[in-house]
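Changelog-adjacent note: as of this version, every example in the card shows the full chain rather than a window. The one below runs 500 residues end to end.
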Amino acid sequence: MFPKPVAALTPNTFAFEELPLVKPTGFREYDARWLFPKEINLMGVQALGLGIGTLVHEMGVRPDIVTGHDFRAYSSSIKLALIAGMQAAGLRVKDVGLALSPMAYFGQFALDCPCVAMVTASHNDNGWTGVKMGANRPMTFGPDEMGRLKEIVLGGTFQYRDGGAYEFVEGFSETYLKDLKSRAKPISRKLKVVAACGNGTAGAFAPKLLESLGVEVVPLDVTPDYTFPRYNPNPEDLEMLHAIAAKVKETGADVGLGFDGDGDRCGVVDNEGEEIFADKIGVMLARDLGKLHPGATFVVDVKSTGLYNTDPELQAVAVKADYWKTGHSYIKRRVNELGALAGFEKSGHFFFNEPIGRGYDDGLLTAIAVIEMLDRNPDKSMADLYRALPKTWGSPTMSPHCDDEAKYGVVEKVTARFRAMKEAGEPVAGAKITDLVTVNGVRVATEDGTWGLVRASSNKPELVVVIESPVSEERLRAMFKAVDGVLRENPEVGAYNQTI
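Full-length structure tokens:
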């Protein structure tokens, strides 16, 4: 029998080589993330694979699974350990090799596998690893499945089965890129596009796809380097967006596109070097697609701009917005439940349903959608399309440190504090509180439309803070000061990664 995992071990000891290490906090709401080897060792990864196989059979799902790995020093070894565990639990594994997460999701359809286990730490710093999993295409695991997986793995209640198998699928990336190109319309407009990959996995795929569409590609940080020497491949971070903006201005590009570490997200910079947060890109795409699909529903996360509800152009084509929980699994599932045309997250996860996509998040498909939007508006630049939106002042996603063990409790206290303020008629940032949305953390809104959000990060020891005002930058800063003031009532909250 495989040993029961333990929560802590010291590296460079015999015990570290004899026992599986799995830190419990690595099981997140909709995927898994650990520092390797501090929080999980290779035997711990085997235990995770055993757990995935046990859960798949428990769910009654056909035991065929796609796996792949992102570009990091250790991802291939993590994947092989995961495969060993999954095979021991009776899963038939199809390995697509070095991959983007959406390439593995595509494999569920192209290779007829109900299940997926993609080894990736996404945009996390080097040193992190993780797995994005699912057993009901195109959805990935949510809290229920992740909670049950955690029980199985930490309890060591694995079910061994015969029938496990392994197949390496050679050349699958070409199949994936060919499918993406087949979904793109012919591009008639001459476009120059910066493709920024942050030295991550997307460098192997994004420039090739964009070139096949007939646009001129300006590569930026596409050479693989898992130390991420310039910045983490995260299009939500200003450092990456600033680098894209500089390259756009230097080369006179029509648009800059930035892809995260596992290629399921896309960030956008316009032709004037203006960094456009992904929720505003979502509004622009909703305007464009709403004309082609009047009355469509778009799911957006609670971090996103209020324009989805108030933009006159979206109202004119009867577009419906559904604000939902942040997180790729939550939005993906909601898009599927509602039959929405698309789902947009402020982090840059975009989910296009049929007839555009298959319901999962793919940064390369998002890039196609942005390029097609420009092609459908030949007399307008990206900056023109952005300026056409009603003006709001918004913050980037700001993340103060807060330990995994404390962050959910802090959010509960902050939510209770804002609720008490609303009930007592106490203003926030000098204005009356008119609404509290508590579907995911707390989003507090005032009578002039200014709002602030606090929620727990689902994949890092952090909180998430986002502020927006349709009135002025002064109101944006006042709301941030007020929200931060409430946060600072909790000593567990540390320094921000970035602020306004």
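Structural remarks: The mean pLDDT is 96.
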